[in-house]
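Budget justification note: compute hours in this period were largely spent on complex prediction jobs such as the one shown. Inputs:
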Amino acid sequence: MGRHFSMRLIAGLAIAATLGVASPASSATLRMAWSQDATGLDPHKQTAFSSIRLLELIYEPLVRLDKDLKIVPAIASSWEFSDGGKQLTFKLNPNAKFQDGKPVTPADVKASFERVLDEKTAAAARANFRSIASIETPDQTTVVFKLSQPDVPLLTAMASINAAIVPASEIAAGSVGTKALGSGPFKLEKWDPNSKEVLSANKDWAGGRVGVDGIDISVLPDETAILASLRTKQIDFALLNDPLVATLVPKETNLTLNRTPVLAYHVLQLNASRKPMNELGVRQAISCAIDRQDVLDTASVGEGKVTGPLTMPGYTSDASQLFCYKRDVEKAKKLMADAGYPDGFSATVIAANGEPATAASEAQVIQSQLAEIGVKLDIKMMELNVYVDAWLKGDFDMAVALNGGRADPYSMYNRYWTKAGNLQKVANYIDDTLDGQMQKGREETDPAKRKAIFADFEKHLVEMSPWVWLYTSYSYTAQQKNVQGFIPTPEGSLFGLSKVTVQQ
Amino acid sequence: MSYLTRRLSTFPLVMLGVSVLVFVAIRMVPGDAITAMLGTEAGLLTPAQREALANYFGIDQPIAVQYWHWLLGVFRGDLGISVTYGKPVLGVILERFPLTLQLALMSMCVALLVGLPAGVFAATRNERMSDLGVRIFAMIGQSTPNFVVGLLIIYTLSAGFGILPTMGEFTPLLAHPLRNLGQMILPALTLGFAFAASVTRISRSAMLDVLSDDYVRTARSKGVPKRSVIWRHALPNALIPVVTLSGVEFGYLLGGAVLVEQIYALPGLGRLVLDAILQRDYALVQGCVLFIAFNFMVVNLIVDLVYVALDPRIRLGEGG
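Corresponding output:
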């Protein structure tokens, strides 16, 4: 009996050893997993969330947004607008150093912004910095941006990793993007695309002591496998996208789920340049016929909050007060009849496969809700890239989308709802009121007045119903109980990992 | 000209055809490397920015010109540079291939070790309960998608027993054989499960055919022991369809097992191709597809040669 038992024990241990069963954390390296890997290392050119989350650990912008979306110092220790909002001056932190030990100088700042503004760089974020007329570096710690017009949202745009400061020498050598040399809390030691990243703590980081020795990131494409790895303590921290997987985390006693409302919004985009969506009454009818809470409950197991266009704290309003946010099918039918479509019409709605994970379900719920007012929707699911291509061309009747949010309403919506907006062709609707409100909001420096301007903008936008805003969801991270100090942000940033500690 | 040389001489032609197809197909799909990199933010680009990016990705020239440049490179043994990995395509593929080959070999071992005996066993007990049992099991194996099997295994091991092979960081076989096998055994079982089911079904029906042949009856009536009749006289003749099936399956597996690689986070060819397609890494897609096509042709050739070894009556390449 005893012998049998020990044989079984040995066999069990052998199996465990063979399978590479992990023992609990023995060092202070954070083992982490995510399902989508970064697609590149150039902070000025990468726009995908998956890339930005990695680059935020390596590079730093001049300023950063905290968990309440307030602007806080990063490379710059202070800043101020002057000359009626046409000049923005930064004082750099004298301790800021790149990971090769060289200090971050005003010349690096100037070179970085000139790189973003150079069309040959092909930085999509250039659109946010077009008001920069010139950059001056009067001394060793000062950078002055001269603007062609007052541009209050510029400062928020500068908090993006797309405005990261890279060494002027790397720009001259043309090695930005092949070599990751920033001033952030972590150094990139190794990157094997779609497989893994190894980061080590930057001991000289001006932002203070980093809580862990490093981060090992594994790419596990299937989020069920991520959950299984958390369960068996093979990883300490994970990023999750699928609400269905995330909601299973609290059921595990040794795991904690961080659930943070994000700025990105789920929306049904109507193409107001096509019949019959060019009729205000038809668009409003669609808005009135949709039960936003039902879409959220069915497609995303209630994980989120019904929203209007403004999703950033400080600007959000009470969604229930917006036009037709309480479902009213009778009103919708009347609007349809008045617009000349008492029997409804047929249209196609496009959605991307798995992007977001809830896209197909959202389209199906909307399909069934709109059927009640006679709108027959044909759902066309597409591979993400094919979808993006159609979306950019404005080639759709309706589109289910998850669009990114920004901390500032102007930066978030000028691309769609201004006459010169880069994505006017996607928005397909503009009027003088919207354009005027956006311009006023861009120039107004008083926070209370800005808030009022954008509240009017939101009210008008929802009434015109070019799109039907649905809900905002959460970003999820899951961690072992011994991981402490992570602060999530509404932007879904993982910068908070710089202060995380792993208790032994 | 021998059969082998003739077969080998068709390779370049097939490869050329495959290369044209994949070159054109991946460019016909809406969306390009620019939208793959930037997503909807691509809409913020100015025409000059777009031009700079198209030039960077090498998609600013007409398709025919792009193809010609690429083909010249291929003749020099240069499949191009992967924009995702920043490395030569061939190097990236060869890094991934050992894993894919190992996984294919291991799942084939699982399939043959389980499927062949099970099929023979069922055939010798035709229409009895044990035959029915094997057939039901084979039916389940064949109709369950392998990602379901994979997810069930992962869930059962992690939630039920608190164990799971290390995922994310893959250990090559030569670096640490034990750890490598630990990481590969579950994926191989997952893939081998469905593969074994097909082998069971096909070897069962082939055996049934052979067992009713005259020479088997003769052997039996001469008093040859049953075991010997089955394993020495009947089985070799029942193997041809099994070899065909295994060859085709093996060829597919060499192209990577996308779903299983995704679930177990294995850096194999399947995931490489999938990611390359999603990220519109043209050079990598082309290189991978060519490589996979080449492997498939080699496997097919080997299968044909095995036929001859199994049944000397088959004369390859001679009329009919």
